[in-house]
């Protein structure tokens, strides 16, 4: 007898498809992506059927024939009818993946699960984009996990088999949550929902690694989940300069010495129905030593300036940061408070040989010598942010208030000694500069905003708002030099200073916010008063406008225009010379004015509909196009002065305000549907920017016209549990022209290539490698290849349920001993060569532990 409505499941290596038999018991599956597949049939009252099939020719037809289901006779107690769950489902602004639908290897982590999800892309460097956008916030069960670095830790440490759902949430921000009107461009929030039976238990990893060149690595992480309570700890210690991701991972070639340790703690819970506390603490310490060589060449109007130096340095640094937060949601209000801290201290010792030559038609100067430096610093930053939203149900009025207070200190000492020989056309001078500089800086920033929303209809509001921001900066610089006879430190008043600077900016605005069918609009008129302690005062009026047109849930056009003030930094205002590097002193300008920038942005986004019925039907595409235009007045620019005298000063930096800054840019990005049986993924991005700016050299202004173009493509070809191949290529080029008398068009470019491959053998062994190559050109020069980097690894899963993993990694197989960085402009070329450690090999073992209860 034909069975109507039996569930048919077709599982292949690339997707899973669900369908049902018709009233005659027939079913038809077309355009299979794989020649081999597993067919399952299930129906209430019958034993399930499961069988593997192979199609001899993919273009052919396979007639499975008649399938006989055996009846299952049993007493029915209680029948619950549930609709089959969709593997991918759109729920409002949330795209939800059912993790159980996506097969992963036993013992796999979150990273492997994300690789399996349609619409999720991960490049060679581990950067994740979902529907063409990066992930901005990472949560586990709706709560923060290890703060800003939580996603990187979770990719390597969170077991895939404890995950129930993967949710991607379009977050339009605090105002959208308050008013229910979505304007602007949303950000991606990634939320991992745990299985109900995995919310109580402990799991973690322990890793050990050792290699030649006395290399070692030890790492651990542990996590305890109990209902809503989450506690996690992570730590590592090694001398390969690697962050807290455990032994056995690739590392880039590092300096000659790099000792590192880190410790991280994370806590989150839910008290009652609405109170969510969370806390994160992170600490790390690094000790490194390195050698590098610098070359800088500047040419303009017949004048040439060439600098070169070789440097040896050793650095030790301790960093700490933490976040404590509470979040409370009620029916008509929302309260959030964050307390953050960051700080650190360290010291560095270095020595360098340097030489600089300056020449023009009637002058020549050479400065050479030896410089040594011993510096220490201690910095701390603490801030608190409070946000309160209130909704008045009767009148539908809404109210929002926010405040931020931050306090930062930065204390440092710097002892430097320079032995300099200065040679000019007429004079040769030897100079010894022996300075001890002490710097104490404090900054207090107070900011607040108040917004009131009066309803004008069902989805329209009139907004009144006020914002206030006050920055109080204080900096004391004391410079002294030992007396040549007594050795006592003598103060140098001309290089010492005490500076206090206050800037106050305000924003008074009135606006209209509404959602009219498919259009969301936010229009404001802003008054921007600003005052500085140098007696500068101004009031700028600027409109701000944000309009979003939603053609479909997955297609939108957004336009944004606004104006912003930016006050000068205190370091740009202090008139006393900063001689941290005596050959390159910096002198501020106390008469600087704030800059004002007008910005316009237009963005079009589209993508595949996000509510598929089966995995085989969902092959997403995302496309984004953006236009950016900006204009800045009173921009703060540097004036690079090259003294034509017998002083040891090579270049002096000063600051002035200038106009003539315009930019216009285009950006395109696309994530194409997978092709070749959904195995080949293609992601592309490109930007084109035209910039009109101004620079000053020796107090003469030169306009600069730049056109910058960059293009990057990522290719990924994979077959699950068999192989994965990746390629990442990029090309950047800039063309420029100065308005100087002999200004000639210039051009510089750089390119990069990265290739990665991984192959699974017998489902337990994995062989992988990564190859990186960079190409750099000078000004109007062809591209030149620089040392390539090749890493490789051999991995073997072992123990029951793949709870163990052995990894053999080989770093820098080509023994590239230098890393080269270069930047070029129309009249200058700067190149840095950093010495790195050669080839080394490490053998690591990773043990996975877990225990879950009810």
Describe the structure.
The chain is an all-beta fold. The strands form three sheets. It has a 26-stranded antiparallel barrel. Strands 5, 6, 7, 8, 9, 10, 11 and 12 form an eight-stranded mixed sheet that branches. The chain has a four-stranded antiparallel sheet with strand order 2-1-3-4, with no helix packed on it. A hairpin with a 2-residue loop joins strand 27 and strand 28.
Q: Please give the number of β-strands.
A: 44
What is the mean predicted local confidence, pLDDT? 85
Can you count the helices?
3
Taking the sheet with the most strands, its summary is: 26 strands, antiparallel, barrel
Instruction: State the distance separating the first and last CA atoms.
Output: 44 Å
Given as residue ranges, the uncertain stretches (5+ residues, pLDDT < 50) are 244-248
Computed over alpha carbons, the radius of gyration is: 31 Å
């Amino acid at each position: 007898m034909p069975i109507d409505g039996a569930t048919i499941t077709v599982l292949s290596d690339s997707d899973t498809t669900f369908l049902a038999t018709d009233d005659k018991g027939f079913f038809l599956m077309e355009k299979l992506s794989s020649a081999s597949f597993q067919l399952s049939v299930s129906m209430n009252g019958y034993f399930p059927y499961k069988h593997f099939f192979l199609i001899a020719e993919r273009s052919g037809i396979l007639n499975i024939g008649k399938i006989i289901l055996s009846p299952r006779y049993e007493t029915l107690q209680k029948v619950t009818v549930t609709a089959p769950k969709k593997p991918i489902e759109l729920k409002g602004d949330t795209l939800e993946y059912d993790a159980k639908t996506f097969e992963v290897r036993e013992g796999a982590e979150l990273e492997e699960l994300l690789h399996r999800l349609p619409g999720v892309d991960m490049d060679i460097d581990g950067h994740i984009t979902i529907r063409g956008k990066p992930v901005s916030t990472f949560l586990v069960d709706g709560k923060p996990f290890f703060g800003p670095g939580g996603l990187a830790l979770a990719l390597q440490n969170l077991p895939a088999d404890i995950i129930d759902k993967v949710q991607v949430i379009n977050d339009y921000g605090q105002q959208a949550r308050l008013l229910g009107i979505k304007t602007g461009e949303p950000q991606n929030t990634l939320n991992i929902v745990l299985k109900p039976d995995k919310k109580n238990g402990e799991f973690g990893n322990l890793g050990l690694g050792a290699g030649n060149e006395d290399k070692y690595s030890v790492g651990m992480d542990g996590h305890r989940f109990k209902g809503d309570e989450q506690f996690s700890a992570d730590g590592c210690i090694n001398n390969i300069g690697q962050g807290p991701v455990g032994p056995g991972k690739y590392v880039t070639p590092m300096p000659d010495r790099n000792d590192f340790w880190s410790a991280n703690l994370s806590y989150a819970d839910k008290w009652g129905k609405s109170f969510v506390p969370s806390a994160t603490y992170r600490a790390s310490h690094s000790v490194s030593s390195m050698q590098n060589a610098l070359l800088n060449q500047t040419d303009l109007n017949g004048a040439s300036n060439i600098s070169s130096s070789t440097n040896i340095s050793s650095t030790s640094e301790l960093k700490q940061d933490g976040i404590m937060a509470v979040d409370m949601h009620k029916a008509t209000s929302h309260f959030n408070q964050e307390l953050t801290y960051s700080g650190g201290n360290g010291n560095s010792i270095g020595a360098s040989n340097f030489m600089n030559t300056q020449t023009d038609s009637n002058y020549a100067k050479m400065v050479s010598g030896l410089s040594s430096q011993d510096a220490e610093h201690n910095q701390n930053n603490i801030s608190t942010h409070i946000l309160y939203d209130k909704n008045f149900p009767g009148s539908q009025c809404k109210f929002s208030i926010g405040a931020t207070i931050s306090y930062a200190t930065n204390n440092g000492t710097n002892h430097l000694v320079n032995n300099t020989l200065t040679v000019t056309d007429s004079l040769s001078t030897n100079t010894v500069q022996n300075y001890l500089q002490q710097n104490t800086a404090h900054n207090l920033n107070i900011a607040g905003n108040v917004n009131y929303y009066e309803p004008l209809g069902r989805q329209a509001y009139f907004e009144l708002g006020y914002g206030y921001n006050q920055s109080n900066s204080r900096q004391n610089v004391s410079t002294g030099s030992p007396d040549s006879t007594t050795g006592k430190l003598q103060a140098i008043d001309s290089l010492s200073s005490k500076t206090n600077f206050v800037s106050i900016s305000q924003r008074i605005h009135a606006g209209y916010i509404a959602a009219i069918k498919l259009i969301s609009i936010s229009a404001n008129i802003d008054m921007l008063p600003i005052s500085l302690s140098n007696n500068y005062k101004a009031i700028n009026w600027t409109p701000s406008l944000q309009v979003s047109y939603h053609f479909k849930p997955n297609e939108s056009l957004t336009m944004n225009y606004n104006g912003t003030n930016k006050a000068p930094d205190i370091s740009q205002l202090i008139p006393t010379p900063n001689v941290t590097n005596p050959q390159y002193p910096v002198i501020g300008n106390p008469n600087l004015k704030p800059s004002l920038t007008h910005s316009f942005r237009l963005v079009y986004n589209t993508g595949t509909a996000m509510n598929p019925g089966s995995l085989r039907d969902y092959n997403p595409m995302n496309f984004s196009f953006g236009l950016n235009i900006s204009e800045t007045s009173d921009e703060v620019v540097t004036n690079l002065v090259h003294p034509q005298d017998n002083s040891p000063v090579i270049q002096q930096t000063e600051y002035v305000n200038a106009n003539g800054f315009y930019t216009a840019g285009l950006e395109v990005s696309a994530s194409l549907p997978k092709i070749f049986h959904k195995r080949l993924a293609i992601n592309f991005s490109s930007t084109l920017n035209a910039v009109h700016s101004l620079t000053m050299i020796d107090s003469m202004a030169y306009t600069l016209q730049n056109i910058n173009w960059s293009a990057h493509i990522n290719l990924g070809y994979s077959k699950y549990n068999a192989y994965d191949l990746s390629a990442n290529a990029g090309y950047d080029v800039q063309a420029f022209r100065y308005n100087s008398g002999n200004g000639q068009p210039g051009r510089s470019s750089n390119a990069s290539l990265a290739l990665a491959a991984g192959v699974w053998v017998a489902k337990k062994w994995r062989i992988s490698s990564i190859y990186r190559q960079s190409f750099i050109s000078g000004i109007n020069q062809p591209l030149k290849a620089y040392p390539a980097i090749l890493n490789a690894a051999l991995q073997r899963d072992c123990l029951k349920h793949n709870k163990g993993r052995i990894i053999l990694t080989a770093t820098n197989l080509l023994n590239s001993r230098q890393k080269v960085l270069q930047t070029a402009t129309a009249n200058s070329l700067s190149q840095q060569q950093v010495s790195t450690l050669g080839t080394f090999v490490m053998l690591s073992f990773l043990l996975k532990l877990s225990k879950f209860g009810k």
